[in-house]
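# step 3/5: fold
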Amino acid sequence: MPSHMPQDSYRRLALTQPSGFLRLLPRVAAGGLFVLCTGALVLPASTIAGAAVFTFTRLASTNNSSKYGEPVIFFADVLWEGSASTPTGTVTFTDGTKVLGNVSLDSNCRAALTSSSLAAGSHSIVATYVPADPLLFSGSSTSFTQNVASTTATTTLASTPNPSTFGQPVTFAATVKGNRHCHLHRWR
């Protein structure tokens, strides 16, 4: 192997094919795609037209740890190596096996999804980039743990009239607040 080629970036395969038989094998090494041939000729992927550009998906949220019922915005950024054109396609956001939504990449290679429906607890959110043209860009995914705290409910009890006298009708009102909801109950 030439001295200018990093040893850990290339592999040499010993193939037992008949002489003159050319077999191309894609291999991932050091973040790139390389083609190995039976004659020990090693070519980097950049010399092969149509090789998909490697992508990486980064995921974050606006609020971790959020409270139950509170909107959370998930941002997925698609990064790529080289000076290839800009990736296009969609990002699928999932919480376990539940699909939260599919969002197209914007001109900044970002997809954003807002959710207010996450239950209290820990959620494994996954963002999966699906390229519009898989021959140009590879797909990628990443996961992120979103923590959602439960909210506490407060109950207020009031009576009218207060104070009251014996035998006088009294109305009680109980107000329960929590989880972005307010409930009012009256008894007489």
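# step 4/5: annotate
The longest strand covers residues 121-131.
# step 5/5: archive (pending)
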